[in-house]
Each structure stands twice: as structure tokens, then as C-alpha cells.
Amino acid sequence: MPGIVIVGVQWGDEGKGKATDLLGDRTDWVVKFNGGNNAGHTVVIGDEKYALHLLPSGILSPGVNAVIGNGVVVDLEVLFAEIEALNARGLDTSRLKISANAHVITQYHRTLDKVTERFLGKRKIGTTGRGIGPTYADKINRVGIRIQDLFDENILRQKVEGALDQKNHLLVKVFNRRAITVDEIMDDLLSYTDRLRPMVADTALMLNEALDAGEVVVFEGGQATMLDVDHGTYPFVTSSSATAGGAATGSGVGPNRLDRIVGIVKAYTTRVGSGPFPTELHDEQGEWLRKRGFEFGTTTGRPRRVGWYDAPVTRYATRINGITDLVLTKLDILTGLDQIPVCVAYDVDGQRFDEVPVNQTDFHHAKPILEYFPGWTQDISSARTFDELPLEAQDYVLALEEMSGTRISVIGVGAARDAVIVRHDLVD
After folding, report:
1. Angle of CA points 219, 301, 75, to nearest 5°
2. CA 182, CA 180: separation in Å to the nearest integer?
3. Strands 339-348 and 41-45
């Protein structure tokens, strides 16, 4: 089963890095296919904690080929900072390959991201201000700069001039900022070309050849289903395709090469940024969950919004992505609760919705209909089989499985690398 997609089920931060790491020793290739350095993956190996923002987390596994696909937008400064940080800690990054077709985040993208968000006032999206959205906008508007453009100075200059001609009018006349010069952008981008050149390749060809050879390729999604530009809580979404379909378009392989779709879901729910969140808690229980789960953004450090498990959201994600297996993370965080609420449906102005409403206004006004399950007090972090879990924890997992529309194959019971229970093998 060579093609495995890993996607977030909720609003991100579900623990996708951990799932990728779990597959590490049987993985030949790991591909990041969407997003940029707005996604943070935290992986714990022994006593070491690694926070990755742009690089696929599979780069931490020895012998694995890491790929940044064409669907990613690349901040070159962040890329090399991450590479240098990993090298300083003795990790090998020499197997990294970057698609020649990936788009580049420039200084003007970051500037526009910040000033635009500021001007939105109460209508803020909750962007990380890292230039991700403006870069994707340029890509769609066909004025973007791709990795391959950095190796042709004349082409690059023409593209930068074309982009700045319009953007400087906006910066100066609307946002009252200084104009950005072509030369400063050129100097910045060209400073990376020599280091970048050995990494750039036709990654779509490489991945297809790897799949043809029967090698295991893991497609690691950034953000999550509910942040997908098409299927998420629009407009409070990211600017890329964070669902399983994005793995095909963002890496250059056909959808028939994707054999298994693994959805990562927390035993509760979190989100960063603005937008609807039906199970969100604004009370002491919410604060307890946030502190227990250390729910602060890997990339931004922002406190995450927290709430109970949302079964309709998981069913929705299962449907949209074609999820074959769920990885349930952070079950251990719920230890100590007398009872655990789960959202099984929504109440929208007195009407019951068993599925996620298609109308965003309805979803915004949705109140959770909760079902309560008995909690447990035993420490479960050392459990390595399902039977070792307290009966209440087993019942909770089985109830979530029944509600979610697909099997729960892996359960995370702690922060450590090996703190997992495997019910069904993800590679078979």
C-alpha cells in the first residue's frame, strides 16, 4: 500500500506530525503538499522536541526522502533557518527535494498580509501574517514567482517588476506604506539560489517513479479539513487545499495513487484564528483543557480555542476526504474528568442538524447537542494495547468510532514518540 495521505480532520493542530513520525521507519518518501510556514508540526523524539513549520516532519526519520511539493508556498528564509537548525542538532537534511513549480513567498507578500489583516478590523480572518494568502492569490492571478524562476535572473526581474507595479500603488496610496523596490526583492531572492539549486527537482516525476517501484509515499497535509479553501468554514480558512484531493494536485500524482487516507483527530477539538466553532468552551473547563493539552500554537504561540469532540465534523471530514483510518490523539488529556461531553448534533434556532450545515450562517449559530460519557482517572500513558485502557476509555473510543463513520486505527495516549496504541496497521 504505497500511497498514504495524512490529513487533519478538524481545524489543525491535531497531531499530524506524530502520525507521520509513527510511519517513519516504514516510509520511503514524505511529501508536504499544501500550505507554507503557517502550519506547525511538533514531534517529540526521546527528550528532544522539534517544531517544524515548513519542512515535512518525515525529515526527522533517517533515510526518508522529504519533498516540498508544488502545492506549497515557500519562504526561503524560513526554509534555510529550519534546515540550519536541524543540521545544528545533528540531523541529516540532504535528502530534501523541492518542486521547481512551488511558489515563493516574498517580502511584499508578508507586508501585504499584515497590513491587509490590520485594515480588516473586526472582520479579521486570523492570518498568521506570513504572506501565505497573498502568495496563493498571486498564484491564482498568474503573477506568482516559482522556485524555477530564481535560476533565470531576467525572467525573475520581469516578474518582480510586474508584481510590484500594482502592489506599490496599493501599499503607498491605500495603506500609507513605503514602496518596495525591485532591487531589494531581487537581492533577497537571488541570495538563496546557490544553496537552493541542488534541492530543486521535478518532484512529481520522482514521486510517480517511487510509487511505480512500490515504495511507501506519505503525503503530509498542513492545516486541516475545516480550514480547506473549498470545504472549510469559509472565509475563515487557509488559502490552499488541505483535504486529500489536495495531495494529488499539490504533489503531481494521480488520485488513483492514493491508497489510504488517514485522518488525524483530537479526542477533543481546538482551533486557532477566527470563525465558527460550535463546541467552543469559554469557561473553567475550557481553561482546564487548554492547560492540560498545552494548547498554544506551534507557529504563533497563540492560545488555541478549545471545545469538546465534534462528531458531525469528523463525519463530514470522513466524507470529504474518503478517510479510511482515524488516528485519535491526546486521549490522555481527558483523564480525570467525571464525564466527557461529545457533540452528536447541532441545534440551529430550534432545528436539529445531524450533519454539518451547508449554510455557514447556520453553522455559525449552531449550538452543540451533547451526549455524556463516563470518564476515567487512571493514567493511560503507558497503555500500548486497547485492552490496557480503562473500560470507560475503551467505551469512549468505540462510541467515537461509531459516530465518525470509519475505524479508529491508532490512539495517542501521551506526548512520547511511542505513546500510541495501534489497533489496525496503517501500512499493510
Report:
1. 50
2. 7
3. unpaired
What residues have CB less than 8 Å from 197, skipping those under 6 apart?
A: 151
Rounded Cα distance between 300 and 271, Å, is 13
Task: Give me 103's grid cell.
Answer: 511558489
CATH architecture of 103-197: Orthogonal Bundle (1.10)
Query: In sequence order, what are the residues at sequence separation of 6 or more whose Cβ sits closer than 8 angstroms to the Cβ of residue 291?
Result: none
Q: What is the CATH number of domain 3-93+202-422?
A: 3.90.170.10
CB 231 within 8 A of CB 224: no
- Alpha-carbon distance of 186 to 166, in angstroms, equals 17
Where do the CATH 1.10.300.10 domains begin and end in the chain? 103-197
Q: Give the span between the Cα atoms of 356 and 231, in whole angstroms.
A: 11
Nearest to 399 by CA among 416, 368, 375, 419: 375
> Which residues have C-beta within 8 Å of that of residue 153, sequence separation ≥ 6?
186, 190
Q: Which of 347, 333, 263, 346 is nearest to 304 (CA)?
A: 333
Backbone dihedral region for residue 85 (phi beyond 0: left; psi -120 to 50: alpha; all else: beta): alpha
Give the chain's end-to-end CA distance (angstroms, integer).
Answer: 6
Closest to 59 in 3D by CA, of 87, 7, 96, 6? 96
For residue 66, the cross-strand partners are: 30
Q: Given the C-alpha cell 470509519, which residue does it identify?
A: 406
* Nearest of 405, 378, 415 to residue 393 by alpha carbon: 378
Does position 301 have pLDDT exceeding 80, yes or no?
no
CA–CA gap between residue 379 and residue 390 (Å, rounded): 9
pLDDT tens figures, 141-190: 999 999 999 999 999 999 999 999 889 998 898 888 899 999 999 999 99
- What is this structure's pTM? 0.91
Helix residue ranges, H only, 216-353: 244-249, 284-292, 311-321
Residues annotated catalytic, as ranges: 13, 41
